[in-house]
């Protein structure tokens, strides 16, 4: 990918909606997520997860998606812009899907998020644009499912994030653990 990974979009939604509204900036709060976003909190906020066990830790405080996916989807006839797929941060120049669990991203001048796992796409994607669910799923050479709808993270250190902010990656020590859905 690019030599200069950066933020190309930031979004949030106060209510539980599939898409999030683009913003000029978002504020990450340590241990909580995006200030003012429906998924902010120490425990799960995703409605289906709350129904199962509202005391689970929130491993989905921040949703990041690589904007290169938007290019791929456009080539297949879909129109997807930052925020449309419910992500808080759209990136360019970093292959989020290949990051190991516990990789940290330093975003802008202050914020640090730690990658917890893959976003598991759900049927709401097809309600947004018919056929999009299948378009964000793929298979590798061995037939294993590839989920391309972004990654989830927790906030290690808060800060404000704006379009154009640089992203620096820090890999965890020890053996890399591949991302799994969270």
TrEMBL record:
Coiled coil: none annotated. Signal peptide: none annotated. Gene3D superfamilies: PK beta-barrel domain-like. It comes from the Bacteria. Residues 21-170 form the MOSC domain. This is MOSC domain-containing protein. It comes from Dongia rigui.
């Amino acid at each position: 990918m690019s030599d200069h990974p950066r933020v190309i979009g930031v979004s949030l939604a106060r209510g539980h909606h599939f898409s999030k509204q683009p913003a000029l900036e978002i504020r990450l709060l340590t241990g909580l997520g995006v200030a003012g976003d429906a998924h902010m909190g120490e425990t799960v906020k995703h409605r289906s997860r709350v129904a199962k066990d509202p005391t689970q830790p929130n491993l989905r405080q921040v949703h990041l998606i690589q904007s290169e996916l938007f290019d791929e989807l456009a080539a297949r006839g879909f129109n997807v812009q930052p925020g449309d797929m419910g992500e808080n941060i759209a990136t360019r120049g970093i292959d989020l899907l290949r990051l190991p669990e516990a990789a940290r991203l330093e975003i802008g001048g202050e914020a640090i998020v730690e990658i917890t796992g893959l976003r598991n796409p759900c049927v709401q994607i097809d309600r947004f644009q018919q056929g999009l669910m299948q378009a964000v799923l793929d298979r590798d050479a061995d037939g294993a499912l590839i989920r391309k709808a972004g990654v989830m993270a927790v906030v290690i250190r808060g800060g404000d994030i704006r379009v154009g902010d640089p992203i620096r990656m820090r890999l965890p020590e020890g053996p890399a653990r591949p991302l799994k859905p969270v």
